[in-house]
Amino acid sequence: MEFDNLSNRVIGLAIEVHKELGPGLLENTYKQCLAYELSQIQIKFLLEVELPVQYKEISVSCGYRIDLLIENKLIVELKSVDEVHPIHEAQLLTYMKLAKIRIGLLMNFNEKILKNGIKRFVL
Question: Is pTM beyond 0.90 here?
Fold first, then answer.
């Protein structure tokens, strides 16, 4: 599936979840509901993917976890915060670099209008 099509479908599903639930819930609630929506239209995804750091010949488990890895080509990092800070963006960019995934979406569900809380990243 082409990136623009895939990301637009994921964004559409996220907006559907946000319309149904509104802002103010915990991040995990939105993650589980978005996972449900993805499964309903048979988009392949993984939840909470552990992401070790490769250092020389060892793999170091540092506790990094990708919220949603979609179709093995799109990372979605979900937040439910008052304000997205540069550290949130850095977190997504780090995951993208470590996973060698070029495309990422940062979504803050704690916005009145979800589209105002979505940022796309490309490496």
Answer: yes
